[in-house]
């Protein structure tokens, strides 16, 4: 067993309670039983449920109503899928296929023991799983259901049928990499039901039974491998969704009723666990928040269309809070949420397809809030974010939240007190993203670490300790200390405890003053002992450029702009100035990831100081308007600092 896996198990044991250890032991015993069945060449279906047709008739399936979908899929996309396009998260399809085949005959414990995903050239396991979510089939079926008169419909349906049956035949449960995660089974389960419902006239009796068996076995597997205790998270929601879908398919059986009850109970529990009271995410990831909300909407819509036994009103209330939170981070639908926290490029339903009852996905609107002329701000105390919009169209986010979901903090980044800034839909100061989950550890450590965010790094260390790719230890606390509104000005003050773990502890405090509906003054101050190195970074979007402002070349002003003419001014006060740094092949610093598996070179404005915490500070001034009155007002404010 490699050192990384040993470290992983030790980290998990440190956070596990006695009930969790008992639960893990039961899972191990279950895996041993399944392995014994496989050795005796016995079908898993034998003795589990022999007569599926008696449990689920065609008539009962016809009574089930599928969720209503909206899609933004073109005929060109449909044609591409029919011609073989898969969603591979920017990985090479052939490499993914070869990897999948390499482990296709192995059972879970043997796959776990392999040293997989340890090198850069090895496909990322997340990318291997993506095509097996079968969401290209969902796209075809959603298109066929909403565009029944399209000449592509017959071909799309036939392709969907053939692709689903081929996948089931090629991937018998529980062999291969696609059963390592019960979450992946939960995401596939709705696809199988879409096939039974939408392709009914194309399925022969044996094909109907094959898909029905897949639904049953997927739910049987999920129920015994649920992500609970320290593993609670978006995986749990996906697995619960799968149990709800399978439970309604098999609702006339004791197993189906048990799946449905447990799936709903977990959904309701996690709606109040993962969606905080202000609508924000406990996982501190905007991508996974969107993903989780869409999973909930899919489950709620399916439940409400098919049973009155489960009241979804409490879940709906929570989802509305989440949608309000998400809308705050969008620019009237033009700009997606900043890449805060992990993002794996996944979709709850399929790319370009979403549940109709998630209304905010249809017509995203900027959130309402305390307005001052055409400016507004929102403060989310529970999740730890503030969002400020200026009259010039700038949108600033300020992260004063926790590291992530305890006890492992899987998808959080060490980004306390970081900001992002866009203007009229164009990103300027960015969170560089995620890149990928496995491969060379250097890249994973960088993108989730503190240097990759628009905040201050002390002594080159992260604000928390990275134990593994998905486990943090020694988490920090971040607090919004003050929120003061006076006339048209807004002052926010926050701090974090991440560097109190140093041998000579340091506390970082950041203050942000928003004034004149257009400008920001950001002050970073520190307290503590010893001598330390302080590095302030502002990461630029790859399409953005930075140059010293020609109007004030002697005053330290930098202009950051985009090709379409959006720009801001930024400078450091005092004798310090920024250094414009560019990404190099020898270091991850300055690289940007626009999507999972992608990375490209970018640049950043950086300043490093060394000294005693009480003597070091940074004051950054940002103006989102370049007109003369704004410059005069800015000069007066700066002079009073």
Look at the structure and give the CATH class of the largest domain: Mainly Alpha
The span between the termini is 58 Å
What is the domain total for the residues? 2
Q: Averaging pLDDT over every residue, what do you get?
A: 89
Polypeptide structure, described:
By secondary structure, the chain is α+β, with helices and mostly antiparallel strands. It has two domains: about 300 residues, Glycosyltransferase, CATH 1.50.10; about 270 residues, Distorted Sandwich (Beta-galactosidase, Chain A, domain 5). It contains 19 helices and 24 strands. The protein has an eight-stranded antiparallel sheet, covered by helices on one side. It has a six-stranded antiparallel sheet with strand order 3-4-5-6-7-8, with no helix packed on it. A four-stranded antiparallel sheet has the order 9-16-23-20, with no helix packed on it. Helix 9 runs antiparallel to helix 10 and helix 13 packs antiparallel against helix 14. It is globular and about 80 Å long. About 0% of the residues have low confidence.
Structure summarized in a few sentences:
This protein is an alpha+beta fold. It is built from 19 helices and 24 strands.
What's the topology here?
Elements (H helix, E strand, L loop, with lengths): L2 H13 L2 H22 L12 H4 L2 H6 L5 E3 L3 H8 L10 H10 L5 H6 L11 H8 L2 H12 L6 H18 L11 H17 L6 H20 L9 H16 L4 H21 L11 H21 L6 H16 L24 E3 L3 H4 L8 E2 L2 E6 L4 E5 L4 E6 L19 E5 L2 E4 L11 H8 L7 E3 L6 E4 L2 E3 L4 E9 L2 E8 L9 E10 L3 E10 L3 E8 L5 E4 L9 E4 L5 E6 L6 E4 L8 E2 L7 E2 L1 E9 L5 E7 L4 H12 L2
Antiparallel strand pairs: 1-2, 3-4, 4-5, 5-6, 6-7, 7-8, 9-16, 10-11, 12-13, 13-14, 14-15, 15-24, 16-23, 17-18, 18-19, 19-24, 20-23, 21-22
Helix pairs in contact: 9-10, 9-11, 10-12, 11-12, 11-13, 12-13, 13-14, 13-15, 14-16, 15-16
